[in-house]
């Protein structure tokens, strides 16, 4: 959780960063050199500077000033001069501004016990528990990068069994492998492969345990599907178009169809997104139940999020079996850590649900043939 700080005095020396860098700063990060878009003309190393995010991407790289739309992120100390930053790009990759007075108090866990900890949002951690992987099982993480859920699944299995992680972008697959190695997890096998093609159609072709896979090959499958990402927060790059948003539903259904075929009878399929649209969440559940009668919607444990949203034709009981994390109601700006310490466990869960990313989880079980 983060807490807003008031009355931070803005400085005449300004640094402008891109929207993604701004998101990271709000999550507790310092400003790294590649994220710097603009800096005041006479900025020197050691200056107190105010950091702003260019949310519309209008600031030109290397500009000496910027009067466009920008959001104040807080103050920090510049590690380098303006000349050092812009004369030595792109090889510079270290900290450009060390944040000392951010608008939001959100501690950074970057590189804190990297061999033991992997930072995740609350709903992302809940997903792996809902999947409930067991030692010795064969698990598929169909859209796995960067591997937070993959490594969590392997850890919950005590690294006993097999976790297959797929992603179609090669550098993201390398990141999964690096994370598994860093955490000492040997049960993970990561492949650069398109999840929509993960079902083996040629039954005679032997791929030696590599994708594509035969039908009914996995005990449990996680489909953390590509989505519009409207639940991600903080997010300063809200540039979605209607065409982009509507493009995800067909892709999600292709992936779901593959997952349903790859799941063993009696196996568990968990579908999740980090978005809030009805079309990518409850409507997909309704479609899946109609399209795959052998799939049954299940209760989830733990149940931390709220129930599903009306509008997709699901029954009241079915909505209760879904988890929708709702960030629309957040802590007031006057909340402090003391009030959280005094909160009971139920209040703490409620607060966690309200001060997290938007997220959706559905759990299915494949009926055994009679």
From TrEMBL:
Q: Which GO terms describe its molecular function?
A: RNA binding; RNA methyltransferase activity
Q: Which UniProt keywords apply?
A: Methyltransferase, RNA-binding, S-adenosyl-L-methionine, Transferase
- Residues involved in S-adenosyl-L-methionine binding: 143-149, 167, 194, 224
Which residues does UniProt mark as catalytic?
Answer: 274
Instruction: Output the Gene3D superfamilies linked to this UniProt entry.
Output: PUA domain, Vaccinia Virus protein VP39
InterPro entries recorded: MeTrfase_RsmB-F_NOP2_cat, MeTrfase_RsmB-F_NOP2_dom, PUA, PUA-like_sf, PUA_sf, RCMT, RsmB/NOL1/NOP2-like_CS, SAM-dependent_MTases_sf
Q: Name one GO biological process term.
A: RNA methylation
Return any one Pfam family short name. Methyltr_RsmB-F
Give start and end of each SAM-dependent MTase RsmB/NOP-type domain.
42-367
Family in the record: Belongs to the class I-like SAM-binding methyltransferase superfamily. RsmB/NOP family.
Name listed for the protein in its UniProt record: tRNA (Cytosine(72)-C(5))-methyltransferase NSUN6 isoform X3
Organism of provenance: Balaenoptera acutorostrata
